[in-house]
Design goal:
By secondary structure, this protein is an alpha/beta fold. The chain has helices at residues 36-42, 86-90, 109-122, 135-147, 161-169, 181-195, 208-222, 239-253, 274-280, 307-316, 326-340, 346-360, and strands spanning 3-7, 14-15, 31-34, 80-82, 94-99, 127-131, 150-156, 173-177, 198-199, 230-234, 263-269, 320-324, 369-374. The strands form three sheets. A six-stranded mixed beta sheet has the order 4-5-13-10-11-12, sandwiched between helices. A four-stranded parallel beta sheet has the order 8-7-6-9. It has a three-stranded antiparallel beta sheet with strand order 2-1-3, with no helix packed on it. The structure holds pyridoxal-5'-phosphate (PLP) and zinc ion.
Length: 401
């Protein structure tokens, strides 16, 4: 067992990890800490050679004590694809995309759900509740079904239709709210206070980050433990970027990677960019973004609970934050599909739009190694593509090309 305790990144308070804890008494999210000295002594890179190609291969750095509590649908070790056409066209040879579209439930949310639900099972949880912009709800509902945990999911009524269906088919309780994820969060908060359900809201349980940090561990492993120069991440609640940063710092502590950290870039939609605004103003926290609106639904988070952690990850790696317009996102989505054969979700496509801006402004140099995170499959967003094919009659002939 390597799990040590929970720690507050704001006031340094610590909590025992074998009990159910959500936020610190100061209101901050908590981070999971391990006995990294012990991990360093006993977890050797060569152990990975014989382990399965899923995120549990890093179990010494994950918060589940007993193997029998692992709830897995085969998540992790997604491909890291060299964009051999799009990169050189933009002026860089080493542009890569990590494709989370190939993971159970179709988005990277499966990582947080796999680890979060496994840990909830280990803690004996029977009912959990969460607000979601859609994809996390779909993932948590699936893993809860497998774990035998009842899930109550509340999402904005504008969330993609597919998310309703994936929640409904797993037998979770689904509610829609006439509002944003922040409104869904308030409704869930009231129910939790009244009924004592387990609060699985973003960053209100500490284990989701642990699942998402495995994206960082995998990127390092896939590059032979040499981290890239830049990682570009689409940021809503920020769990992904916070997790990648945490995972890479842990790899440094156990001596698996050197001093170099990738510069972490947070991409948001221009219609909801609280982190970008805070970064531009050199603030350590963001302010609520009024009237947010974007096609990249997962990025529609007007104020993230972990905003200070997102900003820390950016500042401490000399990264930056970039806002992109919805039409740029759609153009990038089409470019990736046409040039590379990858049908990205709009959130993932936003990372290419950001790379285009950063290459133009020379923040990214031509010889640098850059990783885009495509956080999900475009198949979950059929409404982002409009097509009107010609209708043929059975006797019609196809024109010559
Ligand atoms: C496809 C997709 N990408 C990115 C995000 C943003 O994730 P994070 O909370 O890690 O910032 C979401 C969140 O809903 C999402 O569904
Ligand atoms: Zn605290």
């Amino acid at each position: 067992m390597y799990l040590s305790h929970l720690e507050c990144p704001k006031c340094d308070a610590t909590y025992e990890s074998e009990q159910r804890v959500h936020l610190c008494r100061c209101g901050s999210p908590l981070l999971v800490r391990y006995d990294l000295k012990k991990v360093k002594r006993t977890f050797l890179k060569k152990a990975l050679v014989t382990r399965k190609e899923n995120l549990w291969r890093y179990w010494e750095l994950l918060p589940v004590n007993k193997e029998e509590n692992i709830v897995s649908l085969g998540e992790g070790m997604t491909p890291l694809i060299h964009l051999k056409k799009s990169g050189p066209k933009l002026g860089i040879d080493h542009l890569y995309l990590k494709d989370e579209g190939l993971i159970p439930t179709g988005t990277f949310k499966a990582r947080g759900a796999a680890v979060g639900v496994s840990r909830a099972k280990e803690l004996g949880i029977k009912v959990l509740a969460m607000p979601t912009n859609g994809n996390a709800g779909g993932s948590w509902a699936a893993y809860c079904a497998k774990a035998g945990i009842k899930a109550i999911i509340v999402m904005p009524q504008d969330a993609p239709m597919i998310n309703r269906k994936e929640v409904a088919i797993t037998g979770a309780e689904l509610y829609l709210v006439n509002g944003l994820i922040s409104d869904a969060g308030k409704i869930v908060g009231r129910a939790i206070a009244e009924y004592g359900w387990y609060d699985a809201s973003t960053l209100k349980e500490p284990y989701r980050i642990e699942g998402k940090k495995t994206m960082g561990l995998e990127i390092a492993e896939q590059f032979g433990w040499e981290v890239p120069d830049v990682i570009i991440y689409p940021t809503g609640g920020g769990v992904g970027i916070i997790g990648i940063y945490k995972g890479l710092r842990e790899l440094q502590e156990i001596g698996w990677i050197g001093e170099k950290m990738p510069r972490l870039v947070s991409v948001q939609s221009a219609g909801c960019a609280p982190v970008v605004r805070a970064w531009k103003e050199k603030k350590s926290e963001s302010a609520f973004w009024e009237n947010s609106n974007t096609i990249a639904f997962g990025l529609n988070v007007p104020k993230a609970l972990g905003d200070f952690l997102i900003l820390q990850a950016i500042y401490q790696t000399d990264g930056c934050a970039v806002a992109v317009e919805d039409d740029e996102i759609l153009r990038a989505q089409q470019m990736l599909a046409r040039e590379e054969g990858i049908f990205c979700c709009p959130e993932g496509a936003a990372t290419l739009s950001a790379a285009i801006q950063l290459i133009k402004s020379k923040w990214i140099k031509p010889n640098e190694k850059v990783v885009l995170l495509n956080t999900g499959t475009g198949l979950k967003y059929p409404e982002t593509v409009h097509t009107e094919p010609n209708l043929l009659q059975p006797e019609d002939r196809l024109p010559r090309i």
